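call fold(seq) -> tokens
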Amino acid sequence: MKKQLLLSLVLAGSMVAGVAHAEEQAQQEQANTSSVKVTDVQNAEEKKEDIDQEITNARMRSELGSKSQWSFKSSLGYNGGSMEKPFESIRPAYRSGATAETLTQLAGNVGVNYRVSKGGNLSFGTGVVIMDPLHGDITKDFQDPRASKKGIDVKRSQVSNPYVDYSHGYRAMGAQMISSVTYAHYTEEDYTSADNGYNQLGNLSVSQTVLADFGDSKWQGGASLTIDKDIAKGAMAVPDARYDLGVGLFPFAEYSFNDTYSFRTVFGYFQFAKYEDYTTADLFQIEPYQSMGVGISVTRDIYVYPNVQFTPKDIRADRTNVAVSANINLF
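ret:
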């Protein structure tokens, strides 16, 4: 009887110890599981890979494109009339002179953007242009209103020059940066024709933008360096001066009023070009210009910049143009 009682006590003790060990093991497994949740790792990784932690400038964010893997990407600009007649069909070629006239136009690029990495974006698209978009039926061609070309038919709109672009945003040496390379393939007859055009294949360009903070103030400043080269298919039937390459350094400054509005100015003082079959084979300086306007961050992916453009050597109302540029990213 005593042996049976002793055996029962030993068996009961073993069961209690087993239950306690199982509960301890379960608690340990639960602790281990909760400490390595997949969602926690994903959230931490997403925060770590957010490009907005490195690129904080509203315009530069919009230039990079949406943070979605696939999105619509566009950069458009409206070149309007002069300060005296902002909504006219004709605008002075302010870098050539008030008497050299061009037509107002809405032009830019539209395409699809693929986010390759945190800061890397690959874009495919095409160029678009609408001449004199504020007058008449934009679906129909019209007659040129300029005195020098009075009555000549003007094609209202055109979709041409498809392109591929890779841009990468990052922070280095305490500054915000974007590096990009673009190839545009010419499809317009004026560029591609060997008989009555420039017999060109396309244009390759590279650019580098750098932006730095000015201490604790709301001022930021930087510069964009661009280099581009036209690629010729062969000689032209009729010798003429055709564009070869260009180099430009564009310093700019911004003052932030708040998260939405900022003052922005760009100094186009150091822009040079080279033409084939020109009077000189060297680079020559293009007439300096400056733009001043208000940057508006509508959303993280939409940035609008209404501005005026003028040549600092001859600031006049009839030679100062109004313009609006916009970066629009959707999805």
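Residues 2-36 form one domain.
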